[in-house]
Amino acid sequence: MFTSVNDQTAIKKQQKFTIYKDTCVIFAGKFSLAMDLSARIKAFSRLGKFIREFVEHYNQKQELTDSRHQWLEEQMNQALDKNPWFTIPHILEALGSMGEYLTAENLNQWTGQYPDLPRELPSPKKVGVVPAGNIPLVGFHDFLSVLITGNIYYAKLSSKDPILPKAMASLLHETEPRFGEQILFEDQRLSNFDAIIATGSNNTSRYFEYYFGPYPHIIRKNRNGVAVLTGKETPAEMQRLAKDVLLYFGLGCRNVSKLYLPEKYDMNGLLDQFKDYERITDNSKYGNNYDYNKSVFLINQVPHYDTGFLLVKRDQRIPSPISTLHYETYHSLEEVKRSIEWSHNQIQCVVSHCEELPGAIPFGQAQYPHLWDYADGIDTLRFLVSLNQGEV
Questions:
Q1: Beta 24-27 vs 2-5: how paired, if at all?
Q2: Among 382, 10, 359, 352, which Cα is nearest to 177's?
Q3: By the 8 A CB rule, do 326 and 259 touch?
Q4: Taking a C-beta distance cutoff of 8 angstroms, is the pair 323, 310 a contact?
Q5: What is the pLDDT at residue 6?
Q6: What is the model's pLDDT at position 61?
Q7: Nearest by Cα to 222 from 208, 240, 236
Q8: Is residue 279 helix, strand or coil?
Q9: What pLDDT is recorded for position 125?
Q10: What are 271-321's pLDDT values in tens digits?
Q11: DSSP string computed for 60-110
């Protein structure tokens, strides 16, 4: 079902933003889809500026006198009520990361890598998007990618994150009203689309493959980050590693779920640097997972380290349960390289200061990808540009 809304009238009447409704919404208005690339970049850079200002004001505990800031604070609180995993600090972290890469310089650098990206797109494609909901606004990059290429964003949101994506859509529409005609949300099954971008678990990806297989598509599965330590890391680097492991309660696909350690590594010395996160169990959902996994380890006499908030055990698997971190020891870096190559389809990113590992990112940066750091290594913008050219 589609609902038509003249958002300009609504904003004038209510003097605040109008959030997208639960049904699929089309913002009606006298605006043409003909926006060139520079206009799209300008709109997103203005959105980034607004987000940066909001996060700065909120973190400095300044009074939110701007009605737009007050509205966004309401949306954050609603998102927390809907999903207790989405704490206010974590939502702010996600917003802050978005705000940092939504600059005209970054957007121009990113899109400039695609000389065949049309500046204007008279016949946009309707791209269905099924985002994940594991961490706040995890699907924003797909939202950005579809719209920056001039296409129509048509999404079935995760029940875990239905509020924040619509808030970003409303903010973008307020910044550039012509985007209103290019953003659709559906509360039923997606239909009548030209292509699909879907992200989910290994189990849901089987459904995606079956249902969306006949269409041009990107289908993403479970992945995690890994970290390779050499024993020469500084305490500051290990504190930043703790963030890679525990930010967003470890639920993100870029969170480090496994460590590769040299033999005879001082594990206690490492875990001592994780103490900044000792209050993480105050979140009841995380705390319940910690208590459960600890009980399982104790009952089954599984050898492990216990920090009081994080369980660490030797395990060859990449994914780890919530509140648990896996590790494996190695004899040589060549051995690690082979292991990473063997498991590449399970790994989203590699964190290390080791120069022998190509593509490794610095400690503390796992959750701060550049615009051109694509999930699962699949170039979303290339897919969309090829779609417009009829090549996929």
A1: parallel
A2: 10
A3: yes
A4: yes
A5: 35
A6: 84
A7: 208
A8: helix
A9: 96
A10: 999 999 999 999 999 999 999 999 999 999 999 999 999 999 999 999 999
A11: TT----SHHHHHHHHHHHHHHHH-TTS-HHHHHHHHHHHHHH-SHHHHHHH
What gap in Å lies between CA 349 and CA 256, rounded to an integer?
8
How much is the CA Rg of the chain, to the nearest whole Å? 22
- For the chain, how many residues are written? 392
- pTM passes above 0.85: yes
3-state secondary structure of 334: helix
Q: How far is CA 92 from CA 26, 57, 169, 228, in A?
A: 28, 11, 17, 28
∠ Cα 335 336 339 (to 5°): 90
Which of the four pLDDT bands, split at 50, 70 and 90, describes residue 33?
low
Q: How many other C-beta atoms lie within 10 A of the C-beta of residue 299?
A: 8
How many CB atoms are located within 10 Å of the residue 318 CB? 21
Domains annotated for the chain, with CATH where assigned, are 2-221+375-388 (3.40.605.10), 224-351 (3.40.309.10)
pLDDT tens digits, one per residue of 140-183? 999 999 999 999 999 999 999 999 999 999 999 999 999 988 99
Say which residues have a Cβ less than 8 Å from residue 30's Cβ, sequence separation at least 6.
none
Q: How far apart are CA 68 and CA 80, in angstroms?
A: 19
Dihedral class, residue 215 (left if φ above 0, else alpha if ψ from -120 to 50, else beta)? beta
376 vs 202: CA distance, rounded Å: 13
Q: Phi first, then psi: what are they for 47, rounded to 5°?
A: -60, -45
Distance CA 354, CA 220 (A): 28
The string of DSSP codes covering 20-42 is: --SSEEEE--S--S---HHHHHH
Q: Which two tokens stand for residue 197?
A: 């971008």
Q: 């309707």: which residue's tokens?
A: 126
First to last CA, the chain: 29
Task: Give the relative orientation of helices 164-175 and 140-148 as an angle to the nearest 10 degrees.
Answer: 30
pLDDT at 81 over 50: yes
Q: Quote helix, strand, coil % in the chain, to nearest 5.
A: 45, 15, 40
The DSSP annotation for 140-182 comes to: HHHHHHHHHTT-EEEE---TTSSSHHHHHHHHHHHH-GGGGGG
Across the strands, what pairs with 26?
A: 4
Q: Residue 121: what pLDDT?
A: 86
Banded model confidence at residue 13, pLDDT cuts 50, 70, 90: very low
